[in-house]
Amino acid sequence: MLDKSFKELCDGIKKDIKDTQLEIMVNANTNLVNLYYRIGKTLDENSKWGNKFVETVAFELKNTFPTLKGFSVRNLKYMKAFYNEYKDDAEFVHCLNCAQLPWKHNITLIQKVKDKNIRKWYMEKCFEEGWSKNVLIYQIDTDLYKRQVENKKHNNFKLTLKENSDLVNNIMKEPYVFDLIELTEDYKERELENKMLERLKNVLLELGSGFSFVGNQYKITVDNEDFYIDLLFYHIKLKCYVAIELKVGKFKPEFGSKMGFYLTALDEQIKDDNDNPSIGIILCSSKSNKIVDYTLKYINKPLGVSEYKIFNELPNNLLKDFPTEDELNLYMDIDEE
């Protein structure tokens, strides 16, 4: 068995190697994005050469660097568009934002998010959550910014939490959107729960980073009587348990009392001294905001209530903004060749 001090020494070396590898990757990406910005500037400033100028440049680069990817006609046009987008804000490119994002992410953001402040928010979420390009497209198409930032959230976190109320509020969305299109038309709560378990990876993506799945129909026993929480998670960043109850139908005040009971049981029986108070999220297919707000005023446990939508229930005004199959293929094909 390895001596503890030797193991710690090796672990330190391994961490240093991994950190350096990450730094090399980040720097390489930064250098690439800055190179593309400079090339885009050159292309934009020499447009006088005519319509075939970009095609000619691509041909010359292909001849000189036959094995090097990233200089196709399409990608050169992306570079020009990238430069034009940020030429009045070059510092934004060369510092922490664009330069650290992969090239495909940058192009996706330019094409799909026109407001630069909202675009910056999505960039920061990419850093925090480690989104792939396809996940980024999904989050934009389901309007995550509006659901997480702009829409009013209904919870009592400021009243019930001494610390981290803003952080807890930030994990809430209004509404939540789940890819559970295979549900039957008249689905029941247990079917909804089972579909969520089948697609747990998608559910965790929608919930956001930090959620770790503990169990479904999680049993707690009080005075020899068993009760079951629909879904139980542990949030690593918030250091607390998160109980989620699923309700097919409209929110009712008694849902709040039941969740308050569950949270009390979790705090008394499950959480340890290092954990923060457990929080609850009730997901309903519909709700009256006034009834929710009245209910939350008399619940002394941290609780939030949101609606949920599934893909085959999304309203037409949102569905029309989803990409077509051809558009998805285009985004999938943003190349570096």
Give the SSE layout.
Layout: H1 4-45, H2 53-64, H3 73-86, H4 90-94, H5 103-112, H6 116-129, H7 133-141, H8 144-150, E1 154-155, H9 157-160, H10 165-170, E2 176-178, H11 189-198, H12 200-207, E3 211-222, E4 225-235, E5 240-250, H13 253-269, E6 279-286, H14 289-297, E7 303-310, H15 316-319, H16 325-332
Parallel strand pairs: 2-7, 5-6, 6-7
Antiparallel strand pairs: 1-7, 3-4, 4-5
Helix pairs in contact: 1-3, 5-7, 11-12
**DSSP helix fraction:** 40-55%
Q: Kindly report the CATH topology of the largest domain.
A: Trna Endonuclease, Chain: A, domain 1
- Overall residue-averaged pLDDT value: 86
Tell me the number of helical segments per DSSP (H or I, 4 or more residues long): 16
Shape: elongated
* Total of domains: 2
Structural class based on helices, strands and sheet pairing: alpha/beta
Going by CATH, the architecture of the largest domain would be 3-Layer(aba) Sandwich
Low-pLDDT ranges: 322-337
Distance between the termini: 50 Å
Count every beta strand, where a strand is a DSSP E run of 2 or more residues.
Answer: 7
Question: Key terms for this structure?
Answer:
337 residues; alpha/beta; Trna Endonuclease, Chain: A, domain 1; 2 domains; seven-stranded mixed beta sheet; 16 helices; 53% helix
